[in-house]
Predict the 3D structure of the following.
Amino acid sequence: MRQPGEITARKKDMMEVTFCRPEACAACNACEGGKKEHKIWIRGEGKIGDIAVVDMPDKMVVKASAIAYGLPLAGLLGGMILGNVIAGGQDAGILAGGAVGLGISLLVLKMTEKSRAGREEWSPKLVQILEKGEKTADLQPL
């Protein structure tokens, strides 16, 4: 998945790239609490105002989505099932089990986030820098 974004800040060999949410995502609001912008820091040599084209392989985007949404769902459902067994079918036990399962899965997700973020295959890659004024329609195909 290639995405162009504007370089908005620099620190040594790192640059902050700000992405605007694509129009196709306007109705979803799932990312970043519905923010219209998302910022990342990436290694590269561009100037503030230039356009950085960043790539994240589709396979990794799918994996990240599966982890981010699947793990909490599995924790919620597993906790509800365990709560049902322990509480003998009482609603309060099912609800409490679901809350605990969801909480544990979110904690696991948070604890493992740093290990995934530090690995090369989970990191976005800089593909190209377009100087200020160049059109993003000139992006080179995959």
Remarks:
- DSSP finds two helices and five strands in the chain.
- Residues 2-135 form one domain.
- Helices lie at 58-87, 91-117.
